């Protein structure tokens, strides 16, 4: 969303003493991050941290959703074609998801303790592409139908990349409309097109509603229903992409597909499902591109606290006592331990992909992240995939916070992030099986890069990770103490 100058002034004026102190400490090199950040970055991250931390006035979930899901309109260097995806007549997708959840359940929990079965609903989505002949202030062309906008979008593509993109926002905030500047940038950088889905938000629609929506979106790309503007998209041209919670949805969807493949009754074949009147195969995508993915609902690994000084997200030690003011959305009735899922589901592999042990057969994965609070959980998953024979491209940016590529667009690191993200998407579609693993840490202030071994990014064992996650789940009590994310 865009803020007016008066609104920004009203927001920042009370923070003048804090801003002055932060600037002074940075100038005198008294800040622990002054050697890594410029003054603009120091001010941006520290102000965000204060706005999100325990001293900020809590806002209800309903108010936060209302503020962050407004459609800002369509303008600038972007083509947007809005589409609706109808509900399949068959119930096969729902049942396949519910079966996988039951099969992957670990422990004595019953299905009804893990989740409530969501209905299938029509999906809204957007095709996004780069609009070459526009300026940043150009309005959307008048008189174009959605189909005509899609056709204009396709004419400007230069590659076969189709990015199925899931937005971030902790599973309860944001909307594809707010991501148009980002998806337009990714469309330009990849030369392809982006399909962004308006998946259902928690807490009104908890786990696994968003995963059902993600699975439906993927099948819609592969097998368009009647009236869809696009032709069938081959799986080897589709890349799952997402940031933060959208990265979690990407990896949850991938783990669901891997489970369907593992349990396929026809050895060597693809799992199938009925979808809009046809029996169709469910292949794996070309790859998965992740930006600062959130993989652990319990927020339990060491970097959550240890790297908080580089992040604007407040750690659990600062947020465990924060309570959202009651509203129609939260607290839920009956009570639920977490915004996204039931307490019993917090360590289920489809709710927290970090809990998934088996990633054999996964397509190549790309990780772009900062030296941030979520670093350890990303490192565990990347390392796990490589040790099981998979391909991972790892790009870690020194001293950068969560989703820096979007939050700090002015930095060279943000430009590099987009370049690396797009390169992976193009490479995985064009080269496929020729991809090889690589790991690099991008150093601050133009100091270059250093190689790292993706197979040894972290010393935590799988057993230690599982133990930390289970302990983390115990710290969440009855939906009163809430873990917050961005």
From TrEMBL:
Ranges of residues in domain Alpha/beta hydrolase fold-3: 163-404
InterPro entries assigned: AB_hydrolase_3, AB_hydrolase_fold, GDXG_lipolytic_enzyme
Alphabetical UniProt keywords: Hydrolase
Gene3D superfamilies in the record: alpha/beta hydrolase
A GO molecular-function descriptor: hydrolase activity
Top-level taxon of origin: Eukaryota
Protein name according to UniProt: Acetyl-hydrolase
Organism, scientific name: Melanomma pulvis-pyrius CBS 109.77
């Amino acid at each position: 969303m865009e803020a007016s100058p008066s609104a920004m002034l009203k927001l920042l004026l009370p923070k003048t003493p804090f801003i002055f102190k932060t600037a002074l400490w940075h100038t005198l090199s008294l800040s622990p991050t002054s050697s890594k950040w410029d003054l603009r970055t120091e001010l941006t991250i520290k102000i965000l941290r204060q706005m999100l931390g325990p001293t900020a006035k809590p806002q209800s979930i309903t108010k936060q959703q209302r503020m962050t899901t407004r459609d800002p309109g369509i303008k600038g260097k972007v083509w947007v074609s809005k589409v609706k995806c109808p509900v399949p007549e068959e119930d096969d997708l729902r049942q396949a998801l519910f079966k996988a959840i039951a099969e992957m359940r670990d422990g004595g929990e019953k299905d009804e303790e893990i989740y409530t079965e969501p209905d299938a609903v029509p999906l809204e989505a957007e095709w996004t592409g780069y609009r070459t002949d526009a300026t940043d202030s150009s309005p959307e062309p008048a008189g174009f139908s959605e189909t005509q906008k899609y056709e204009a979008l396709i004419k400007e593509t230069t590659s076969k990349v189709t990015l199925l993109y899931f937005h971030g926002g902790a599973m309860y905030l944001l909307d594809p409309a707010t991501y148009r500047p980002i998806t337009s940038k990714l469309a330009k950088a990849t030369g392809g097109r982006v399909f962004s889905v308006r998946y259902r938000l928690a807490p009104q629609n908890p786990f696994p509603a968003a995963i059902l929506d993600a699975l439906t979106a993927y099948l819609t790309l592969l097998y368009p229903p009647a009236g869809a503007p696009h032709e069938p998209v081959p799986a080897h041209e589709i890349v799952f992409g997402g940031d933060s919670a959208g990265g979690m949805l990407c990896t949850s969807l991938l783990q669901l597909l891997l489970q369907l493949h593992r349990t396929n009754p026809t050895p060597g074949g693809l799992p199938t499902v009925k979808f809009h009147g046809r029996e169709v195969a469910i292949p794996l995508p070309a790859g998965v591109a992740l930006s600062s993915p959130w993989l652990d609902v319990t927020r339990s690994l060491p970097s959550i606290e240890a790297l908080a000084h580089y992040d604007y997200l407040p750690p659990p030690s600062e947020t465990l006592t924060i309570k959202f003011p009651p509203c129609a959305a939260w607290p839920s009735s009956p009570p639920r331990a977490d915004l996204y899922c039931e307490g019993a589901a917090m360590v289920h592999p489809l709710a927290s992909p970090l809990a998934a042990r088996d990633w054999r057969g996964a397509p190549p994965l790309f990780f772009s992240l900062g030296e941030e609070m979520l670093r350890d959980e990303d490192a565990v998953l990347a390392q796990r995939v490589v040790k099981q024979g998979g391909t991972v491209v790892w790009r870690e940016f020194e001293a950068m916070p969560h989703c820096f590529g979007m939050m700090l667009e002015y930095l060279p690191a943000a430009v590099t992030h987009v370049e690396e993200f797009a390169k992976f998407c193009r490479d995985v579609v064009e080269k496929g099986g020729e991809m090889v693993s690589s790991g690099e840490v991008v150093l601050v202030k133009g100091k270059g890069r250093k190689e790292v071994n993706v197979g040894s990014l972290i010393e935590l064992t799988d057993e230690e990770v599982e133990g930390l996650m289970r302990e983390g789940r115990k710290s969440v009590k009855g939906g009163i103490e809430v873990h917050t994310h961005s």
